[in-house]
Amino acid sequence: MRMRVAAVQLNSRDDKAANVAAAEAGVVEAAEAGARLVVLPELWTYLGPAEGNRANAEPIPGPVTERLAALARQYRLILHGGSMLESPAGSPRDARPYNTAVLFGPDGALLATYRKIHLFDAAPDDGAPAYQESAAIAAGDAIVTAEVEGLTLGLATCYDLRFPELFRALALRGAQVFPLPSAFTLETGRDHWEPLIRARAIENGCYVVAADQVGTFPPRRATFGRSLIVDPWGTVLAQAPDQPCVVTAEIDTDRVADVRRRIPSLANRRPDVYEG
């Protein structure tokens, strides 16, 4: 099965209304370019000081996901709505929101949600403030795949990219494509972004559609951009420039089967040796 896919690269900041408008424009641009699978980046509804997370979180379903559902339905898209701040139903007002990815089918139905499992607690640059995502975000605990129109997607978000065991679990559950919404830091992205994405594609024989944030956001943070679409052999099919934009490429699920036949790393696993 062949289809055109798109990664929407944004420079989201702390203005939710402006962010929503930019994301909607990106989805429309991708649809008009012929994409049937469109991926938005991480935390595109609000990317700013952590103290604003709760105020900008929403339940899912909620106002933003309703707008995404309408776009998916209008343009007959498989729409991966990136990730957003989710306030779980019935939670206390002071509870940490989740960093939650959402997936819609061409009829606008919400097919899956994925709460980011691995939270970015790191200090990638000695001269910059440390990141501590877990202080303001609650972690998820479920591995999620979803099938739509004969395509199986394995869901992961940004820092998850550094945990190959998650991607292997997704591939073993049948994933052919990893949509990857991200807000990868500028400091780490320069050296790690492309190698990690290509590695996850190669070792699992999967496509990766990685939509990243680009540019600065408050307080004094910077994201890398360079959104990528990579095939199961690790070949870069499309890469974004250093600005908000949409990049597209054609994928073919027969390529997944062909690569896995030629390099059968999933079939050649030895769990009896290394999972004991």
Briefly characterize the structure:
The chain is α+β, with helices and mostly antiparallel strands and 276 residues long. Helix content is 28%, strand content 29%. It has helices at residues 16-32, 53-56, 63-75, 164-172, 186-204, 253-262, 271-274, and strands at 2-9, 37-39, 78-86, 98-104, 110-115, 121-122, 131-132, 145-148, 151-154, 177-182, 207-212, 214-217, 221-224, 228-230, 236-239, 245-252.
How would you characterize this protein structure?
This protein is α+β, with helices and mostly antiparallel strands. The chain has one domain (2-264): Carbon-nitrogen hydrolase (Nitrilase/N-carbamoyl-D-aminoacid amidohydrolase). Helix content is 28%, strand content 29%. The chain has helices at 16-32, 53-56, 63-75, 164-172, 186-204, 253-262, 271-274, and strands at residues 2-9, 37-39, 78-86, 98-104, 110-115, 121-122, 131-132, 145-148, 151-154, 177-182, 207-212, 214-217, 221-224, 228-230, 236-239, 245-252. Strands 5-4-3-2-1-16 form a six-stranded mixed sheet. The chain has a four-stranded mixed sheet with strand order 10-11-14-15, with helices on one face. Helix 1 links the parallel strand 1 (2-9) and strand 2 (37-39). Helix 1 (16-32) packs parallel to helix 3 (63-75). The chain is globular, with a radius of gyration of 18 Å. The protein starts with a strand and ends with a helix.
